Amino acid sequence: MVFPGAILAGAAFGAGVKIFMNAAQKEPIMRRPWEHLIGMVIGGVVFNQARHLELQWQKEASEEMEKIRLRLKQ
């Protein structure tokens, strides 16, 4: 499943990290622009996967809670 919001947030984070690294090293912001793209891709993939795992864990937790509720009713 693809989460566009997570991908956009991850891409912004990845580009922001690279821009911050260049600024901290007092280099031109767009020194090697392909590194910005790599950071955006990695950030998008990581944030998308994190969102997917979060939803999966929520589903598993709700299933476990339902099992516990059924056991308590008995």
Quick tags:
74 residues, mainly alpha
- Encode the helix/strand succession as letters: HH
| Rg of Cα set | 19 Å
Give the terminus-to-terminus CA distance.
37 Å
Number of distinct beta strands: 0
Task: Outline the secondary-structure elements.
Layout: H1 4-24, H2 33-73
Helix pairs in contact: 1-2
What does this structure look like?
This protein has 74 residues and is mainly alpha-helical. Helix content is 84%, strand content 0%. It has two helices and no strands. Helix 1 crosses helix 2. The mean pLDDT is 94.
Can I get a quick summary?
By secondary structure, the protein is mainly alpha-helical. It is 84% helix and 0% strand.
